[in-house]
Design a protein that fits this description.
SDR_fam; SDR family oxidoreductase; NAD(P)-bd_dom_sf; oxidoreductase; alpha/beta; Rossmann fold
Length: 248
């Protein structure tokens, strides 16, 4: 595989795993981040160790100017091949809907929905043959929460991911004939820092008994699904939401 892959939220967790596996499979990688630069630079360094080009770029995916700058920066590495819309937040305050602060809910929707829209729009403008591009692929990171609802914890987060699923299917229909495949991966419970950041370090332990495979997933397992959807092996796959959740 050749070309440049942009991974939003690429400095840790699933995003970092995607960056590493993408480099192993021949991509040059733009590692997007919004906060601390150090983890992003470490991921970019790992990509370079694997023999590929890498660039860490700070950008807020909810800001149009930042998103344009992110994609402009990618041009320095080579032709754009794809986008992984991985940046997302829960709001870190679990609780019932009637306990949630509207400012947190708005921020979650802005990052998880508007951010996906802005990045996908910019990718289509650069990849679609309608706009003079050479085609490519977009993979949005959803969640099995879109189907499960996350009652008592993050209903607003689950709703944002359901929006990602619908957006994925609709955009896939718009651009499938323009050389751009759009799909999503919906992870289930995965070992990342999300649970600790939300003040629930035991969350995985509590949910494992309900997972038929008897364990949580690992970021690398999600990355494998993402890279397959980006690959020629998924050449007839568009508008799909691939659940990777151990059958939960």
């Amino acid at each position: 595989m050749t070309g440049v892959l942009i991974v939003t939220g690429g400095s840790r967790g699933i995003g970092a795993a995607v960056c590493g596996l993408a480099a192993e499979q021949g991509y040059d990688v733009v590692v997007n981040y919004s906060g601390d630069a150090e983890p992003a630079e470490k991921v970019a360094g790992r990509v370079r160790e694997l023999g590929r080009k890498a660039l860490a770029v700070r950008a807020d995916v909810t800001d149009e100017a930042d998103v344009r700058a992110l994609f402009d920066a990618a041009v320095g590495l080579g032709p754009l091949a794809g986008l992984v819309n991985n940046a997302g937040i829960t709001g870190n305050t679990p609780g019932r809907v009637d306990e949630q602060d509207v400012a947190i809910v708005r921020r979650v929707l802005d990052v998880n929905v508007t951010g996906v829209f802005l990045c996908a729009r910019e990718a289509v403008r650069r990849l679609s043959i309608r706009h003079g591009g050479g085609g490519g692929a977009i993979v949005n990171i959803s969640s099995t929460a879109a189907r499960m609802g996350s009652a008592g914890e993050w209903v607003h987060y689950a709703a944002s991911k359901a929006a990602v699923d619908t957006f994925t299917f609709g955009l896939a229909q718009e651009v499938a004939g323009e050389g751009v495949r759009v799909n999503a991966v919906a992870p289930g419970m995965v070992h990342t820092g999300l649970h600790e950041a939300a003040g629930m370090p035991d969350r995985i332990e509590r949910f494992v008994p309900a997972i038929p495979m008897g364990r949580a997933g690992h970021p690398g397992e999600i990355a494998e699904a993402v890279l397959w959807l980006l690959s020629p092996g998924a050449s007839f796959t568009a508008g799909a939401v691939l659940e990777v959740g151990g059958a939960r």
